Amino acid sequence: MRNFVVVGHKATTSPNFSLEDIPGTSGRLDILCRSVTAAFVLSHGIRKDVCVYLVLLGGETPKVIRLMGETLRHLNPDERTTAALLKKALAVPAVPEWTMSTSGIFVCTGGLEKVLACLKDAKLVYLREDGSDIRQESFIGEDVAFILGDHVGMTPEEESLIELAGAKVVSLGPTSLHADHCIVLLNWTMDVL
Questions:
Q1: What are 158-181's pLDDT values in tens digits?
Q2: Torsion angle of the four alpha carbons 183, 187, 190, 193, in this order, in degrees rounded to the nearest 10
Q3: 98 in helix, strand or coil?
Q4: CA distances from 124 to 63, 143, 144 (A)
Q5: What is the DSSP string of 131-164?
Q6: Residue 193 pLDDT > 80, yes or no?
Q7: Which domain CATH number covers 63?
Q8: Across the strands, what pairs with 144?
Q9: What is the pLDDT of residues 48-104, one digit of tens each?
Q10: Per-residue DSSP letters for 67-82?
Q11: Domain range holding 85?
């Protein structure tokens, strides 16, 4: 299974944002929408072997949205449709346990620490420009979880959590890339292995 964890430091935890102005009203939830599209969408279908965890920290109570490719429905390649699915998930009363909003989409309260606990059996890979070269790594046949930040980057506390969880720091190169671009490159890398 390929898992992608994207932390949205300013991404709203409320469904009260406009689908007409996603970047301006949702705390940059658009970054997470593009990451979802990059993780799942193929030319004629959805990747079934992918799971995405979106960590939303832009509200009073942090929330996590989990999207599972095996049962995911109604995902189209446009940002607005993805935002509408996330909006539905955020409208569900979040509790500490996973609650389904629509097919393949679940929400709960919690943050990065909760996601790392869910992925304790996966090989954790934290993407950062100064990490080891990804071309030197092998992910064949492994349950792997790639951890990415948003435009803000990770806080020292988050980096400490990631390190304590045993994640390996890996790089796609010295140039900073958008999270969704990293996901496309990671999917391609995993596809050709």
A1: 999 999 999 999 999 999 999 999
A2: -130
A3: coil
A4: 21, 9, 6
A5: EEEGGG---TT--EEEEE--TT---HHHHHHHHH
A6: no
A7: 3.40.1280.10
A8: 2, 123
A9: 999 999 999 999 999 999 999 999 999 999 999 999 999 999 999 989 999 999 999
A10: EETTT--S--SSHHHH
A11: 1-193
